Structures are given as C-alpha cells and as structure tokens.
Amino acid sequence: MGSGVSFAPSEQERQNTMNIHEYQAKQILAKYGVPILAGGVAYTADEARAVAGRLPGPVWVVKSQIHAGGRGKGHFLEEAAGDKGGVRVVRSLDEVQQNAFQMLGNTLVTHQSGPEGKEVKRVYIEDGCDIKRELYLSLLVDRATSTVTVMASTEGGMDIEDVAAKTPEKITFQAIDPATGISGFHCRKVAFSLGLEGKQVGAFTKLLSSLYTCFIATDCSVLEINPLVVTGDGQVIPLDCKMTFDSNALYRHPEILEFRDEAEEDPMELEASRHDLNYVKLEGNIGCMVNGAGLAMATMDIIKLKGGAPANFLDVGGGATRERVTAAFKIILSDPNVEGILVNIFGGIMRCNVIAEGVIAAAREVSLNVPLVVRLEGTNVELGKQIMADSGLPIISADNLADAAEKVVKAVKEAS
C-alpha cells in the first residue's frame, strides 16, 4: 500500500494504550463539534426503554458495549439472544427493552473478543438514521513517517484489514505533518477519494478537521469510525467510533482516565498495572520475566527459535524493587498455561541481587511447581547467583540467553 501504516499495534504499543466504549468516545467527539446521533447508555432493560423514550424514534439501535470490534457480526453464547448479533435495529419501545434484556449479562463473542467473548454490562441506545452510504475513516499515528495519517475507504462497515488484503486500491492515505496541522486541502482530497460531492464535501471537511483537533488534544493513538455514514439528506455522521489513548499521556487527561473500564481488561494485565509492570498475556506456555522491552522481545524471539512458545510479555523495568519482582513472579504463575519460567535480567540500573531476592521470595510464597531457569548478567551478578544457589530451590542457572532458552524449553518438555 506504500504508506508504511501498520493496522495492528505491537505488543509494546498495546500495553501502553487504554480503550474506551463507543458511547464514551462519542461524548468526547461531541465536545469537539463532531455531529453525533442522539443516544444514551443503559445498564438495565428498563433503563434502555426509558432512554429510547427520550429519543425521537421511531427507529432505534440497541448496541452492546464491549471493548471489541465486530459486534454487529458477533453472536451471544446464550441461545435466548438468537443470532442477531450485538447491534440491533428495532422499531418499538418493547423491542428496545426486549433486546436490551437479551444482551445484558450475556456474553458476546466477536472476531476480536476471542472465543471466550466478553460479558455485556451496558448497552447504548441510539436514534436511527437514514443511511445512504457507508464509509470508513480513521486517524492513527504512523510510525514509519512520524505523522498522523488519515485512512479512508469507500468500503465502510467492513474490517479494514480485509479491505487492505483484497482491494487495497480502495484505501486512501493522507499524512498530516503535526508541525503544520490539518488543512482544507487535506480534507477535500480525502472527501473526493470517497466520492463525496456538493455540500457533503463541506460537511466532511468540517468533520475531519474536528476529528484531527480531538485526536491531537486528547493524545489519541487510534480514532476509528466504521462506518461513517452519508444520510439521505446529505449529512456525514459517525455511526460507530473507537478511540484508543496513549497511557503515558493520561496524566494530562483525568477526565478520560475516568472512562477506564477495568472489567474489560485482562485480570493479570490489570494486576500488573497496579504494580507498574508491563504485562501482556500471550498464547504459549513459557513465562518470561525480563527488564526492558527490547530484552523482552529478544527473549520471546529466542524461545520461539528454540522450539518453545512465550506465555507472556512481562517487563519489570529498570528500577524494580524486590516487592515488584515478587508481584511479577506471582502474576506469571497465576496463568494456568505456564509450564515453565525463564527469568532473563541484564543488571544495569536493576541489580541482579534484587531480582534474585524477589524470585526466591515469590517462589517460596507460591510453592513453585514448574521449571525455573534464570539468566543473570550485569550489576551484582555474582551476588545474585550466590543468593539463588544458597536458596535451596531447584533453580536452573544459565550462562547466556541461548543457553537459557534451550534449558527452559527442554525442562518444560521433560516435565510434560
């Protein structure tokens, strides 16, 4: 496609972002002058009916609110909810109430939620509209060009990854230098690529300008509107919206931080964040504890190279305390898929003896019952190795990273 834009965030980027619900994103957009359909959130079926009763109607949309895309094409685990998906168009207050009742407390499975799905704890009731066309629009940080890039497509309502794979020519990219900001030229160029005409171009220009202002002002990482609809009377309106924020900048936005829904987050990732640990759960069976994101990536790569599969990305950082290391170890062991652990530490700011003390404390507290391989190098390395040797625990020492990876993969296979 030639833009260098990556659709999927890296593991390091994913752990440094915060997602919010659709209705919350639309509240933010409205503050920046983006046209939004009338709607309201509800936590019970009765509340849903009441919200719909305050909207013009006579058509409403009942939307499940979870942190996953593809809600309309998803399915609920409970048969009572039928096969209508997590987004439903209804034409009476009774239907609003009935569909909200079916969704709330039920588990919605989408292509992004994983097979376990996510429980629906709130629904968004939105006024219907006359849809003439469905488009795709997003803004994201392009790592290759260091710009904010606008992506647009005439194929709204579809997964952009599918469009990119099958018909990449239907995607338009427009890079915007943050030093100069967005201009009318940028907006019109994107509008024309979408086949907009007449007053639609002016409406789109105003909308995209507002979206860009919002993106920059809120330290957004991804702002995706799918679909963006053109109505029968020529309005251009976001029908759905996803916003992801840079967690490192949330201290500047306490009002956005209040939107955090901890129930939507992985319990182990949430626990890690409480100890200032960087943790992402993966699919394998070998837990990895390292200090530094680069070392974490290298460790996971070499585990794969030696025939294993990492169970997580866990970075304790450069200044971790014994207590933080102990917490990290417990989080790794709380994953039932973990059949072995590799601790790979390069002691610069982080001292190897602190790591050793934390590992030993945690191993004793949780009754370690899986193979543990430790590779230490750097500050106080000999002291760290001595502490582990004197612990009496069955810790397997490694001389280097390749040796450590080979030993943990072998130990896991022998133990299974």
Structure report:
- This protein has helices at 11-15, 22-31, 45-53, 93-103, 160-166, 184-193, 199-217, 254-257, 267-274, 293-305, 322-333, 352-366, 381-389, 401-415; strands spanning 17-19, 39-42, 60-64, 75-76, 87-90, 107-109, 118-119, 123-127, 131-142, 147-153, 171-176, 220-231, 236-238, 242-246, 278-281, 286-290, 312-315, 340-347, 372-378, 395-397.
- It is α+β, with helices and mostly antiparallel strands and 416 residues long.
- It has 3 domains: 11-20 and 130-257, D-amino Acid Aminotransferase, Chain A, domain 1, CATH 3.30.470.20; 38-127, ATP-grasp fold, A domain (Dna Ligase, domain 1, 2-Layer Sandwich); 267-415, 3-Layer(aba) Sandwich (Rossmann fold).
- Helix 3 (45-53) packs antiparallel against helix 4 and helix 11 packs across helix 12 (352-366).
- Strand 6 (107-109) and strand 7 form a beta hairpin.
- The radius of gyration is 25 Å and the shape is elongated.
- It contains 14 helices and 20 strands.
- Strands 1, 9, 10, 11, 12, 13 and 14 form a 7-stranded antiparallel β-sheet that branches. The chain has a 4-stranded antiparallel β-sheet with strand order 2-8-3-5, with helices on one face.
- The two termini are 45 Å apart.
